[in-house]
Write a structure and sequence with these properties.
Layout lengths: L1 E2 L3 E3 L5 E10 H4 L9 E3 L9 H20 L8 E5 L6 H7 L6 E3 L6 H14 L5 E8 L1 H8 L15 E2 L2 E8 L5 E7 L14 H20 L8 E4 L3 H14 L8 E3 H5 L2 H4 L5 E2 L1 H18 L4 E5 L1 E3 L3 H5 L6 E3 L1 E5 L2 H5 L2
Parallel strand pairs: 3-4, 5-6, 5-7, 8-13, 11-12, 11-14
Antiparallel strand pairs: 1-2, 2-10, 3-9, 3-10, 7-9, 10-17, 14-17, 15-16
Helix pairs in contact: 2-3, 6-7
Length: 341
């Protein structure tokens, strides 16, 4: 049902009943390494191109989530999926053989949030018993499309982030699961004129700020109503900007703030500069780490906010700025865990 001006409250509280996460070697060596389902040492995933590697990674993550949910691919009525590549080729070639009705999505690195919202709407409206969500990114395929071929060996500024090689998949249903999706706030495009494509945290932070402010207004909540307020991939710079922007509105999230891009790598040893980014950043952190915290009851309620920088090689080369968008999803622990406290 509608909640406030731009939010949704899910009356049936769709459940996350299956998850799957597959990452690359670098991600497996980071602080979250022990939580991922699969860590692939081969960056090509046994294929001969970066794009095929990302497709393979997507399929493996989705099959893991399906197995984890104890259902079959044919039980999934709709699949909401996306990636960073042109025409969503990682997704289309990745899930094609599973023969699941597909709704391809592009929200840059916010795609996991967009997909979760649409999938939850589908379950909540009883238009599906099971729906699937998957997003991915690959360091090499993203560098090839958005920045420089790896062979260039170009220097990266300290404001830049490292695209996560990873895919995260979620299965939603109406039965009891690991976590509930109880609400959401749909993001707006916010553009404050940032033109530096290597500083995406600065470009996305204003959008995250806008979504959080509207979310608190629509649900009449405050930061302390959440154990964590988790952004997707703002990185060190973007997170600081977000905290400062909200503080100007007398909203203080320092104690609750967490960023998937910061959690993904150990910058001191892995040289990732501002942190991690990419569709796979928030997706794998959600599937491998966040959901486990909710399942155990350590966290009762979190606000999950994947963030996206809406640029392309075309818009950047034409001198346009980098707009941002951020979607917020309310995740809560299972009812039986909550009732035991």
């Amino acid at each position: 049902m509608q909640q406030g001006k731009s939010s949704l409250k899910f009356l049936s509280e769709p459940s996350i009943i299956g998850v799957g996460s597959v990452v690359g070697k670098k991600e497996g060596e980071g602080p979250l390494g022990k939580f991922f389902d699969e860590i692939e040492e081969d960056p090509l995933f046994g294929t001969d191109t970066w794009e095929k590697a990302e497709s393979t990674m997507q399929k493996r993550a989705l099959l893991l989530a399906i197995k984890n949910a104890n259902i079959r691919p044919e039980d999934i009525r709709y699949l909401y999926a996306g990636d960073l590549l042109g025409q969503l080729i990682a997704t289309s070639f990745g899930v094609m053989d599973l023969n699941i009705p597909l709704l391809g999505l592009y929200g840059a690195c916010s795609t996991m949030g967009e997909a979760l919202i649409l999938s939850s709407m589908c379950i909540d409206s009883k238009n599906a018993d099971y729906s699937g969500v998957i997003t991915s990114s690959h360091y090499a395929s993203a560098e090839k499309q958005f920045r420089f071929p790896l062979d260039y060996g170009n220097q990266r500024p300290f404001s830049s982030t490292w695209t996560v090689t990873g895919a995260g998949a979620v299965i939603l249903g109406n039965t009891n699961g690991y976590a509930r999706i109880t609400g959401a706030t749909v993001g707006k495009i916010v553009d404050l004129g940032v033109e530096d494509s290597m500083n995406m945290g600065a470009a996305m932070a204003p959008a995250a700020c806008d979504t959080i402010l509207r979310h608190f207004e629509d649900f009449n909540r405050k930061p302390t109503d959440y154990d964590k307020i988790i952004t997707g991939d703002l990185g060190v710079i973007g997170q600081k900007i977000l905290i400062n922007l909200l503080a100007k509105e007398d909203i203080h999230i320092y104690e609750q703030s967490m960023d998937c891009g910061i959690e993904m790598y150990d910058n001191a040893t892995q040289d990732t500069h501002a942190g991690g980014s990419g569709c796979g950043c928030s997706a794998t952190t959600l599937c491998a780490f966040i959901i486990k915290k909710l399942q155990s009851g350590e966290w009762k309620r979190v606000l999950f906010i994947p963030t996206g920088a809406l640029l392309s090689p075309t818009s950047f080369n034409e001198g346009q700025s980098v707009p941002g968008i951020a979607h917020a999803v309310v995740l809560e622990c299972p009812k039986e865990v909550s009732s035991n406290d």
